[in-house]
């Protein structure tokens, strides 16, 4: 395969090599139209930067370390796709580590990444991580760090996350508007940022509709393979059992679906189920799973852009802050109206159906 260089792009567009170089780096000195033409030409010629040549121009290795809890998790695999796409186009290569939800392994991963002289770190914290002192020490030494998805408020670094509060609020509101009153929430460790934000959204939706928050309906799990069944048993044994489940992760959503079916509970006639996932087979499940989708690939792309901007100390690098990316609620069969409510709606007067259908459902 023929290899094209910056000189080829410059010759193709009849501009200088320095202009091409600055455009490829995203320099603020180059106008947007020129950047667009350069990027299109680079794509057409299949131009790719040479990380080794680039590293010779400075002290950097043109490598970034990415540490995630588990690559097999669909959210993280999609986020990594986004990270690699941006890194590749900007002349960086990616070294990926898995913490396997272990704090000790996470620390070891960071040490290993630094021993390889990466230029910066992208991290999503493990479920065991509550102490981020080791990261603060690295940050204080000037190591560029960006956190994504699972983040810590104790670090003054850029964070890129889904809008967990609004996503959880939308999921809970959707269940309420489908006539559900006793909504159980299955989530993960309480100290994780995503847990706190999704729990807050769940509570806010209950409050909006005048429903009392009941701690007995909330269960915190780890990442064990067989833990969902006992949680479902405990919840269904309550004096007033839940009529809906809102789960805060892919694993919990699938585990809850399996546990409910094993206990001969019909979804959604007996209970509704909605997840907070990026599960790519959600619509193929039986019943198809309603879910709040996180923009995993976009989160990875934005996180990588922010980190590389920090590494390169760009003149217009974004200030430290939290970037929240919108989620999307997709309603499927697992939260459709139960048959008895559908029958009640079918016999309602036209005035009731047209005026306030949501209030009508809530009053049943």
TrEMBL record:
InterPro entries (UniProt xref): HTH_LacI, LacI/GalR-like_sensor, Lambda_DNA-bd_dom_sf, Peripla_BP_I
State if Cytoplasm is listed as a keyword: no
Superkingdom classification of source: Bacteria
List compositional bias (Basic and acidic residues) regions by residue number. 351-364
Q: Does the keyword Transcription apply?
A: yes
Concerning SMART domains, the annotation shows:
HTH_LACI
Q: Name one GO molecular function term.
A: DNA-binding transcription factor activity
Sorted keywords for this record are: DNA-binding, Transcription, Transcription regulation
Q: HTH lacI-type domain location, by residue?
A: 4-58
- Pfam families recorded for this chain? LacI (PF00356), Peripla_BP_3 (PF13377)
Q: Where is this region: Disordered?
A: 345-364
Protein's name in the database? LacI family DNA-binding transcriptional regulator
